[in-house]
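Final report, closing paragraph on structural work. Over the funding period we assembled a curated collection of sequence-structure pairs, and we close with a single example.
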Amino acid sequence: MNALLLFAAEEEGGGGLEFPPIENLVEWPAYFGEGTIFEFNKIGLISLLALIIPTIMFLASKKELVPSGLQNIVESIVDFVDKQVILSAIGPEGRKYMPLLLSIFLFVFFGNIFEVIPTFQMPANARMANPLILALVAWVTFIAVGIKAQGFGGFMKSSLFPPGVPKALMPLVSLIEFISTFLLRPFGLAVRLFANMLAGHILLVTFGVLCIAVWKASPLVILEPLTFATLVGLTGFEVMVSLIQAFVFSLLTAVYISLSRSAHH
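Its predicted structure, as stored:
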């Protein structure tokens, strides 16, 4: 709750709340390497943990005939990604992309879920760097898959020159297809994840500050149970959003891979 206490500082001589600029909610001091390319702060730590935790989960899960405990959790996650992401978007032939799509799902989820973990209280994906890198990975992947499946010429033809379009309109349609396929896809992936997590972070911080304000204002203390219940409800909602955003990002990546494999989309 250190961040909330920091944001709930009283205005000098006014006794009210001072809400800081938005950058104060997402910028964190460096642990080391400040001002260099090796700068490491809370976002870097959360991103590192989002890599380490799934790795430990898979390495530590026992390979038993009847799964239990951690193995049951791991197999449930794999089964979810297989059925809800790969089979629904690509089909059985898409299982060869399981390592990529499972890694994206877990990295996004664990990067998000730190929003509700005490002392962290910040989703790594509320900064643009992680969503942008993941979007670029998805972008490179669906282009590489398309070129491998159709050849460079075939992929560019199916991406930029849809069949049945009058020749007079083809230049305009091709431009629109280029922007949609090669620019808006990665941009949309990155911005969707970033914007949702940033909005949720701001919402939780705002209600946390309001809880502190109501508690400190003795005439309003009767409202504290209501504001606290709202904060608890929003925290639960943010957990759901963390999972949904991980699912949506991995699903859209799978959809783009499926489209790039097809001769016409």
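The mean pLDDT is 86. Residues 138 and 253 are 6 Å apart (CA to CA). We thank the funder for supporting this effort.
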